[in-house]
Amino acid sequence: MLTFNDVSLDYGSFRALHGINLRAEDGELVVLLGATGAGKSSIFNAARGLGRVRAGHIRFKGADLAGMKPTDVVRSGVIQCPEGRKLFPGLSVLKNLMLGAYLHSGDKAGNRTRLDQVLELFPALVTRKDDPAGALSGGQQQMVAIGRALMSRPRLLLLDEPSLGLAPLVVRQMFDVIQTINRAGTTVLLAEQNAHAALKIADRAYVVEGGRIVLEGTYETLAGNAEVRRAYVGG
User: In the listed set 126, 153, 180, which residue is the last one of a domain according to the structure?
Assistant: First the structure.
């Protein structure tokens, strides 16, 4: 579905990615693991048409995303749930969710069905749907952010640090939901620092350092790697 072939990405004169090779097949849940500034968000930006791809190709469903306008990338089905949620705090939960459906504004019945699915996935939002998004807890705001992305009907969902700032119990609940979304048929590329939680639900993972892929493997191979365990997993 999504493949990076020797991709290098620049922001002005700064090279953020160096020869990235990765893939996410249909139905997979793939994790990008790395510290802040490692290059995980830059990989997302490259896929979304942000920044300048100086070398390589990014293919999604056979189309080359490199050089494609960000709006066309979104129309192709590549949807990101950004780090920090980026909600409109003064708007209601419902209005924030419906902002994700703007590409499908002509399909009112389909949007109603999708909204019902999102609220079924996040039942805590049902009684809060008319409240300002800024009045919600951090965990509930993350639910809204993921729900808004799902309203765009993603074929590939890019999740950027969804556990950031959340309590451990909420993190476990959030990763259960992410796994449910993936099992329902959405391919997921998940950028995370919380390796212990992320690797458990991943089909495969890549370790990103300094804008490069330095390791690739399954939970068993990466959790068994002493360097990865010391840096990211603990123990």
Answer: 153
Q: Name 9's bridge partners.
A: 17, 53
For 82-218, where are the E strands, in sequence order?
Answer: 156-160, 187-192, 204-209, 212-217
Task: Domain of residue 128: give its range.
Answer: 85-153
Q: What is the DSSP letter of 77?
A: T
pLDDT digits (tens, 9 = 90+) for 141-173: 999 999 999 999 999 999 999 998 898 899 999
Angle, CA 176 vertex, CA 74 and CA 87 arms, to 5°: 45
Single pTM value for the model: 0.92
79, β-bridge pairs: 157
Q: What is the pLDDT of residues 197-234, one digit of tens each?
A: 888 899 999 999 999 999 999 878 887 777 776 666 55
